[in-house]
């Protein structure tokens, strides 16, 4: 299947790899242009629709998308294509050797083809849900209502936007600072944080600055202090996540007769487990609300509503960053049907986030060959590696590596889920999952920015104390 998908790539435009590696200055230029195009698409609404709430949520943050714009699909087609093909290959459902450099190129071409196919399917269903096949959908613009051609118009725009993003990802990977997927997620999360800070500072009703200027007394001062909580906890979250991410687990080994330590990042699986966990719990929450609203009477309807309430409490408590309202909901509100306090709902969500992250971490590691047993096999293939203080014993080596790696997978996946859940509970801007992604991406980009400044503007580094 991989080769069959790749065979269609010759009919598509191709982004050639640079013959000479781009300079750091050129990489910055390409990255700036790609980001400019991305944000133009982010604010360009699809012709033929109206009335869509294009505010960001967890899913749109993780997929760098915005409903109703040219970024309606965002990077979703690329993520689905990449994950599915990797799981099929690494799970040995498809026999395909990725250690061969030629095969890697074929695999990448197959990913592009598959991503475009997925974009067409997603675009079809998105256009159908927004405008309908008959042009009478809930979000049809007034001038297009009842016009059947509006479906095709919206479909083409959504798919075209997704294809542009697919090619921008390739350009960014080959000519920019990082992959387009990483760049768009980091840019989307950063934009979300900055826009929410602006909202908290300037909104006429809940804004900190308007409330300070109102001079309405001690009540307003208390309101302002409470409204500053999301900004303060966001700064703390960035610091804590950056600190934890810098920690590495050392594994003591004897390599070539010398004592060495292999350092493995604490976030060994990066943010994959918490992304899956966040998306799943968000879906559970939405499904639960739909099930609780099922009309009718009778035992079966009651059972469906009760199950919906259980799904609902596994997801986050929604809010609009009005801290006074949020705190009131937590301490006075109750979960429908189950009738338990909303703060219990919040505790359940945090625990569910941590537990599901750990489960996804273990499953993902085994599916992609990053678990302890797989890593131990790779290390044991080197005859010069042994456990420090022991003779070379393959069984001891496998046991130690497996204990280290598998223990790290469980602990780090649980911890990253716990951090994300607590962050969401205290209204971290851009969501904790988004910040985890953003920091992991910036960790790769910042060294390049530092090198760029060393060459082109060393004065800035001196001001920053470097």
Description:
- By secondary structure, this protein is mainly alpha-helical.
- It folds into 2 domains: 2-177, Preprotein translocase SecY subunit (Orthogonal Bundle); 248-463, no CATH class.
- The chain contains 18 helices and 3 strands.
- It has helices spanning 2-7, 24-42, 58-63, 76-90, 101-130, 149-175, 180-202, 208-213, 218-227, 229-246, 272-292, 299-314, 323-332, 342-368, 372-380, 394-425, 432-456, 458-463; strands at residues 248-255, 258-265, 385-387.
- The protein has a 3-stranded antiparallel β-sheet with strand order 2-1-3, with helices on one face.
- The relative contact order is 0.10.
Which properties best describe this structure?
466 residues; mainly alpha; 2 domains; three-stranded antiparallel beta sheet; 18 helices
The total of beta strands comes to 3
Largest sheet: 3 strands, antiparallel
SSE string? HHHHHHHHHHEEHHHHHEHHH
End-to-end CA span: 51 Å
Give the overall shape.
Answer: globular
Strand content: under 5%
What structural category characterises the helix and strand content? mainly alpha
Given as residue ranges, the uncertain stretches (5+ residues, pLDDT < 50) are none
Radius of gyration: 25 Å
Oligomer: single chain
Physical arrangement of strands within the biggest beta sheet = 2-1-3
Helix content: 55-70%
Counting DSSP H or I runs of 4 or more residues, the number of helices is: 18
Give the mean pLDDT: 83
Domains, number:
2
Task: Detail the topology: elements first, then pairings.
Layout: H1 2-7, H2 24-42, H3 58-63, H4 76-90, H5 101-130, H6 149-175, H7 180-202, H8 208-213, H9 218-227, H10 229-246, E1 248-255, E2 258-265, H11 272-292, H12 299-314, H13 323-332, H14 342-368, H15 372-380, E3 385-387, H16 394-425, H17 432-456, H18 458-463
Antiparallel strand pairs: 1-2, 1-3
